[in-house]
């Protein structure tokens, strides 16, 4: 089976639309950040966007609540099983999985790739990665887990690394 986003078939068309929707999301984040920065300054723009994106993550986190506060295996299966395009879009690599926590490294990110394709500086892409990561903070914290993300930084390969730990 051909799995490239350029595949010519119904599946290929759906895949292309999926990847295009992530690219669209990335470009919307960028343009919102630019407009808010022009009006309020970059620091305030980042704060506002993080709050809004975290709220969306909190909505998403409801589906992971049944695994809180300690079912790391259940959370891992549900979370990784929901990554678009059977995981190809983000290419997750489980670095650690035990009762103490889950660490997942993403080799790809369609948002960062869209920002780089659009010619954004590495510093701006890193800022947008920090902002976009708030969806994950909202998701896992609202689900009842402790969470931290190492977001992409200029010069690094891959993308972010998520660190999920049992909740209280």
What does this protein look like?
This protein is α+β, with helices and mostly antiparallel strands. Helix content is 54%, strand content 14%. The chain contains six helices and four strands. The protein has a four-stranded antiparallel sheet, with helices on one face. α1 crosses α2. The longest helix is centred in the N-terminal third of the chain and has 31 residues. The chain is globular. The N and C termini lie far apart (44 Å). The mean pLDDT is 95.
Characteristics:
168 residues, globular, alpha+beta, four-stranded antiparallel β-sheet
How would you classify the helix and strand content by structural class? Answer: alpha+beta
Give the strand tally. 4
Q: What's the helix count?
A: 6
Global outline: globular
Please outline the major beta sheet.
4 strands, antiparallel
The succession of helices and strands, N to C, reads HHHEEHHHEE
User: How far do the termini sit from each other?
Assistant: 44 Å
Give the strand line-up of the largest sheet. 1-2-4-3
Helical percentage:
40-55%
Catalogue the unreliable spans: none
Mean pLDDT, all residues: 95
- Tell me the radius of gyration: 16 Å
What is the strand content?
5-15%
Task: State the gist of this model.
With 168 residues, the protein is α+β, with helices and mostly antiparallel strands. It is built from 6 helices and 4 strands; from the N terminus they run αααββαααββ.
Structural topology:
Elements: H1 10-40, H2 42-61, H3 72-81, E1 92-98, E2 101-106, H4 110-117, H5 122-132, H6 134-143, E3 146-150, E4 161-165
């Amino acid at each position: 089976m051909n799995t490239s986003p350029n595949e010519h078939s119904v599946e290929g068309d759906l895949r292309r639309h999926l990847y295009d929707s992530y690219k669209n999301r990335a470009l919307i984040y960028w343009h919102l950040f630019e407009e808010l920065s022009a009006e309020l300054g970059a620091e305030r723009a980042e704060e506002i966007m993080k709050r809004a994106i975290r709220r969306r993550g909190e909505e998403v986190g409801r589906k992971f609540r049944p695994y809180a506060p300690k079912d790391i295996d259940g959370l891992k299966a549900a979370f990784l099983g929901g990554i678009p395009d059977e995981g190809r879009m983000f290419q997750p690599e489980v670095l650690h999985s035990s009762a103490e926590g889950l660490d997942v490294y993403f080799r790809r990110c369609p948002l960062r790739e869209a920002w780089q394709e659009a010619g954004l500086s590495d510093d701006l892409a890193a800022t947008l990665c920090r902002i976009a990561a708030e969806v994950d903070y909202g998701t896992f914290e609202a689900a009842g887990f402790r969470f931290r993300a190492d977001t992409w930084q200029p010069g690094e390969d891959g993308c972010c690394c998520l660190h999920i730990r049992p909740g209280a």
